[in-house]
Amino acid sequence: MEIAACQKLTWLWPEFTERDLSPNSRATKQTSAWIWQQMQNGKWCWLPDTMKQNRPSHTDALVVVDHWGNMAVVNHTINTVLWGNTGIFVDAVSIPDSAAFQGSDIARAGPGNRLPIGMNPLILLRDGKPVLGSSATGGGLHAKHLQVLANILDFGMDPQTALDTPAFVGWDAGTVEEDTFDPNVLDGVSQFGMRAKPISSKEASMARGYWVGIQIDPASRRMTGGVARGLEGQVAGY
Predict the structure, then answer these.
(1) Same structural domain, 64 and 181
(2) Any residues with CB less than 8 A from the CB of 121 and at least 6 apart, and which?
């Protein structure tokens, strides 16, 4: 395929001079394989520039708002230990990883039932209209998501400030990344009976949560957003 062919577009589908991309053709294995090859080579004309760059393939969290204020929030993950290597699923069970770290979830779901995915895309409504869309990824996604929401909803912070505030990491209560909290704060927490456990940045790398969100002011309809530090180069913006 010549790249120039991508410049000649119809309303929904590009016209390729060397390939039939009619609905019937697109349903065939041959055409699907050809499209996949174009995407792998970075030549597919609808492939965003950010996807053409060589980056790790991890979980994605996506928040989108259109000019009418409609909101969509999506998590995309292959949900395997260290992201696996196939991305193939059968009834929400990853293959060949077979949801190895989700044994308790499989047991609760029971034979023949679909395995629930513990991700957390979220849309908050006020008077029936979306005012906040958010999601998170990473090992500590649940802890991070709850803390950022508390900062926004309870303390009135804007999304980026709420995200940049020091937070507990990982799965064990009281685990914090060293040099993120004021020592006096940790001492105060210990007086309430919760022992703070500082861990190194290297240890925390797998336990961090990464949050993204967009807030819409109900009165002015002005949008503000936040994205985890260090991930700015991996998003198109907000």
Answers:
(1) yes
(2) 61, 73, 74, 75, 133, 134, 135
